[in-house]
From TrEMBL:
Pfam families: SURF1. Keywords: Cell membrane, Membrane, Transmembrane, Transmembrane helix. It comes from Ruegeria marisrubri. It is a multi-pass membrane protein. This is SURF1-like protein. CDD domains: SURF1 (cd06662). The lineage of its organism: Bacteria, Pseudomonadati, Pseudomonadota, Alphaproteobacteria, Rhodobacterales. The keyword Cell membrane applies.
Length: 225
């Protein structure tokens, strides 16, 4: 009887933990979907002028339309685009009035890295962003070859002598550069998968608990007979 009671308590405790984890992931799913919807609405909102002092949190994804001058000089950030392959994001200095910010012009293929690109006066529409692309495995930039491996806004600003503000273009700034505008595709939302996993484990746990309880009762019933 003690063995059966232990199995019952152990099984119900484990089942409760697994069900609570699955429920928590369902709650996280609802939160993430609301967050993504808010970000999508913010990204696609009506563009405004460049804020005087952009804030990395309050102004993240802010739609902006600016007129200015695209200056010579650029940095190449290695990326890979689905169904296209490897290439580079082109980051260049963009002067807006008496300020200079970073402009992510978009994507070029590997072989187009060192081609000449349009500079000078232009109007650009895009979104402000401060990407979080640095981790312990990110290599240092190859300054000799002008190849970077992440959009490290402060480091790029120091390299190109601009404010640490990055505008990611939605509009085209050169016929040979394909814009890679801000979207939510890179924001993970795996909570449904996690919820299914936890609930599946709860089902297996419940089945195993029932099996062991049955096994625990079987010898007792045999002895009674």
């Amino acid at each position: 009887m003690r063995r059966i009671l232990f199995l019952l308590i152990f099984g119900l405790t484990g089942l409760a933990i697994l069900l609570s984890l699955g429920t928590w992931q369902v709650q996280r799913l609802a939160w993430k979907e609301a967050l993504l919807a808010d970000i999508e609405a913010r990204i696609s909102g009506d563009p405004v002028g460049l804020p005087e002092s952009p804030d990395p949190e309050a102004d993240r994804f802010l739609p902006v339309a600016v007129s200015g001058e695209l200056l010579p000089g650029e940095v190449h950030v290695l990326v890979s685009v689905k169904q296209v392959g490897p290439g580079y994001r082109i980051i260049a200095p963009f002067r807006v009035g008496d300020r200079t910010i970073l402009l992510d012009r978009g994507f070029v293929r590997i072989e187009d890295k060192d081609k000449d690109r349009q500079t000078g006066p232009m109007e650009v529409t895009g979104n402000l962003h401060w990407p979080d692309e640095i981790d312990g495995y990110t290599p240092e930039p190859d300054l000799k070859e002008n190849i970077w491996f992440a959009r490290d806004v402060p480091a790029l600003a120091a390299e190109l002598d601009t404010e640490p503000v990055l505008l990611i273009a939605r509009s085209r700034t050169d016929p040979g550069v394909t814009p890679l505008p801000v979207d939510t595709a890179g924001i993970p939302n795996d909570h449904l998968q996690y919820a299914v996993t936890w609930f599946g484990l709860a089902l297996v746990w419940a089945a195993m608990t029932a099996y062991f309880l049955w096994r625990g009762r079987a010898p007792s019933e045999s002895r009674e007979r």
